[in-house]
Amino acid sequence: MNVRRQHISGIAMAATAALGLGTLTACSGASAAGNTDRFDVVASFYPMAFLAERIGGDHVHVTSLTQPGQEPHDLEISARQTAQLQESDAVLYLKNLQPSVDDAVAQSEVKTKIDASALTSLEKHGNEVGGHAAEHDDHADEELSGLDPHIWLDPVRYAQVAEGVGKAFEKADPDHAADYRANTAALVKKLDALNTEFKDGLADTKTKVFITTHAAFGYLAERYGLTEEAINGLDPESEPSAARVKELEKMAKADGVTTVFYETLVSDKTAKTIASDAGLTTDVLDPIEGITDKSRGKDYFSVQQANLKALQKALGAK
Predict the structure, then answer these.
(1) Based on C-alpha coordinates, what's the Rg of the chain?
(2) Which residues have CB under 8 Å from 182's CB, separation 6+?
(3) Is the pTM of this model over 0.85?
(4) Of the spans 120-129, 181-190, 276-285, 289-298, which averages the highest pLDDT?
(5) Is 60 exceeded by the pLDDT of residue 26?
(6) What is the rounded average pLDDT of the residues 30-48?
């Protein structure tokens, strides 16, 4: 395999031994990233790790900087994790989602740096996405440069990213290019089928409006002609204003909204409070930022299908 191997210094070796990176189940958990005989890929969080695993297959060793159950927006890279990046063959991340990861990647000497945000188109999204004009959260705009990073929730954009990752793997590890190409094609085909499921499943619904605690579903809403009304904007931890809550309750009644969606990695308190006050129900719509025991599925595809069912129920699919 034509992969660059650096001499591991004593300090880096100690960091490697101490590092607590989360390793995907399909990969060997015994070896830390950057010190195996495979193409070593460090992924920033689950959607990136999933792509690396599916495209790389047996030829890659994938580790994730974000632990299962950890809110990726809050991740702070440790000095040990930064040192670990130096020993990997590639890093796959999504710029502007995790600032500490961006800083670590910029400072690292990893030969292959793959930024998923550069492999598809990004747009500005705020509290309202879809049929209404977007109103942007100033704090989110400041932190995310006004661009919504949640591209993986749109199967079409995620497929575009997958194709870019596959080409990057082929270039970085040419000995296994044919396998990477075949694995990428199979993944894209499955994502195309998922897109068709969503398109057909949401084509005829009583309402097109849904409420979420976190504005993660803007690209999905636009793709399938829906309108996402988010309580907290792009920042999942922010608190909504009293005016925003009142506006949502009024909108819910006018647009026939039945459900307030919350996610598994963030508290459901706000969603349940608003739902109770407005006489609505609550349900989970998973942004798939990490897979845990609470997830409605074991991987990206099964959780997305659970999301589709939840949307169909909430929107009154016919």
Answers:
(1) 20
(2) none
(3) no
(4) 181-190
(5) no
(6) 79
Residues 106/115, Cβ–Cβ less than 8 Å? no
End-to-end Cα separation, the chain, in angstroms: 53
Tell me the two tokens of residue 151: 């591209």
Cα dihedral value 112, 116, 122, 128, nearest 10? -140
Name the range with the highest mean pLDDT among 191-205, 238-252, 259-273, 275-289. Answer: 191-205
Check: CB of residue 163 under 8 Å from CB of residue 188. yes
pLDDT for res 126: 63
Strand order of the β-sheet with 209-212 is 128-129, 227-230, 209-212, 259-262, 281-284
Q: What pLDDT is attached to residue 202?
A: 98
CB 64 within 8 A of CB 260: no
Of 300, 299, 298, 266, the C-alpha closest to 284 is 266
**pLDDT by residue (tens digit) across 213-271?**
878 999 999 999 999 998 875 555 556 777 877 888 888 888 889 999 998 877 788 88
Instruction: Count CA within 13 A, CB hemisphere, residue 76.
Output: 1
